């Protein structure tokens, strides 16, 4: 047995992923034996755009950004993922396709990996997993559409406010009716996420601080003091 497989871990990757939620402990143990583990250093690439990929990546610990290069050579961040989330699901249904995004570790990150062959075996034995994967793909398409709509909005203040709200829900710890957020992105990466300059991010953050909607603590921490007030500000 592979002593690095998930079945030996205190909390297997499979228990963290919604698509495996309905499986029995026996099924989870069998899947855990298929999983390979790898650690990535901060800034290291997990997948590169236009490179072959046949792997489902499950984030066990850490944060990962998915991004594409625009025709102008600028990075466009598509999603920020954290522990329990996964990517590469489209590779499972394809055959020899190239990745349409790059993935980079935003911090030291632990990953669980399943190959296409392993996933085909799992899906054959548990057909309902394919429905959960389809649901996940649908949700991500909706997110991509929302991102495209946000980028089409001319007002950068609105884009930045929506990003703060998203980071609050996903990465914030509730505190006094707001969220205490350990920011997973640098100022430059946040700018790339919402399609503005770094200077615009800093200027709008200062504006939201003046309005007492947020509080900045250093470069990596932001307190969203009143999410409802920020949402109302956007109306």
From TrEMBL:
CDD domains: CAP_ED, HTH_CRP. Pfam families: cNMP_binding (PF00027), HTH_Crp_2 (PF13545). GO terms for molecular function: DNA binding; DNA-binding transcription factor activity. Residues 154-228 form the HTH crp-type domain. The keyword Acyltransferase does not apply. InterPro entries: cNMP-bd_dom, cNMP-bd_dom_sf, Env_Response_Regulators, HTH_CRP, RmlC-like_jellyroll, Tscrpt_reg_HTH_Crp-type_CS, WH-like_DNA-bd_sf, WH_DNA-bd_sf. Keywords: Activator, DNA-binding, Transcription, Transcription regulation. SUPFAM superfamilies: cAMP-binding domain-like, Winged helix' DNA-binding domain. Residues 19-140 form the Cyclic nucleotide-binding domain. It comes from the Bacteria. GO terms for cellular component: cytosol. This is cAMP-binding protein. It comes from Paenibacillus sabinae T27.
